[in-house]
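Give me the fold.
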Amino acid sequence: MKAQTGMFYAVGVGPGNPAWMTREACDVLGFCPVIAAPKNAAGEISALDVARGAVDLRRKSILPLRFTAARAKSVRNAEYVRAAGSIARVLDAGLSVAMVNLGDVSIYAAAYYVLDELRRQGYATQMIPGVTSFSAVAATLGASLTDMDSPLHIYPGEAKNLDTALELSGTKVLVRSGKTIGEIAAALSCRGLAKEASMVTDCGMPSQKVFSEMTDLPENVGVFSTVIVPEPHRAARKK
């Protein structure tokens, strides 16, 4: 472990509603002097916007980290290494850094991949959990994701094995489905599941939209879209 450096915190801020942030997340953001935040290709810093709704960050130094959400793993890995390098310079100055991340930091989270790189380099790190997007979506729909004897399967929306996923027993959750929503809707329709599945986009944000069925969808539903496909017997109860 490196000596006399700051601590790196990967902080889950939940899916979009600042009220869903944990007390621990707020405390960490409150005492860290530097806040790192993912910035997408469009210049949006969604996780930071959520955090600002719960914590006064006006006196913090903000470190934007650019991520392109590239499909190529080599490109994504290079972005994580570059982000870790920017944060390491701050940590070497003895300052602690909190990197905000939508949802939870253990589920498809850029903050975790950056943390993993910093940890390999010998820096002190800590994960601060947050409300997951699919848990918030389930609450918004007023539905349980499981019952006592059924499994839960979580897949990225761009999963190459979508057909295999939909054949599994139990509830299927497809997160960050916006870019492939047409493909997902078509696959659900082929299996007669389009009317059983539900989707929430931008859960907890002012732009939130709820689709109780996966039919007649708009062309652009937003990247932060989560599709829930219940097990057939649970869908029957839903009716």
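DSSP finds eight helices and ten strands in the chain.
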